[in-house]
Task: structure prediction
Amino acid sequence: MLSPNVPDTQVQQAERKVSAVLEELEESTDSEVKDIALEDVIDTDPTTGRPTLRQAVDITVQPRPRRSWLK
Result:
């Protein structure tokens, strides 16, 4: 959910950056992005050594189908 204080231009810039990263991922792995999810994960805080909750992006890709046409 977006904060009402975030201008639309910042959101659009962020969307373009994410889109570019996803496009690069698809091209470099010869796959298609199937799903994107924001997940809560438990990590270790490097300064205290204690567990901390953070958010991470989970991206699921699937191989592009290989097409062979009859000759």
Q: What stands out?
A: The chain has one helix and two strands.
